[in-house]
Amino acid sequence: MAGTYRRQIGIQPLRPRIRRAWFGPGSVLHPLSVGFGPVVTYLSNEWLDRLRSAAQADDALRAAATGAELTLQQVVTDAPGGDVSYYVTFDDGEVFVQAGTVREPSVTFTQDYRTAVGVARGQLNALDALRDGRVMLVGDPTVLQERTDALAALDAVFSEVRAETEYPEPTRG
User: What percent of the chain is predicted at pLDDT more than 70?
Assistant: First the structure.
């Protein structure tokens, strides 16, 4: 059944990219770099790559995502490089992170950059931001309630990446 949900909502399967690994400082394979990867910039392609790799490598997340079929679309407005969209797909034990938009997400969250950074850093509670109107939700929120185990496991995996993330100040327009 894995993959069926992705096809239904219009997601193409990801093809893994093979990168050459260097063994010097800063390399994932360097003994002093294990667990302390280079800092990545929030919402950059490298950041999304790091989220994707972390999600696909985590056994606890795969177990929590078993049976889950949903897609969470994130839209961050007013980011330093412009608006950014990405989505997370749970497909019966598989979890994918991809840049861009998806045709029919289960839920879409939209927030400005300052709100997104506050939530990501743990300085702002996401539920409070939703209640205050700083995060807009479109879709059926019951799918979130039905999959709190998978979402908690996703948050645990993403927290590792957040520890290695820098958050640039938004540009003034």
Answer: 77
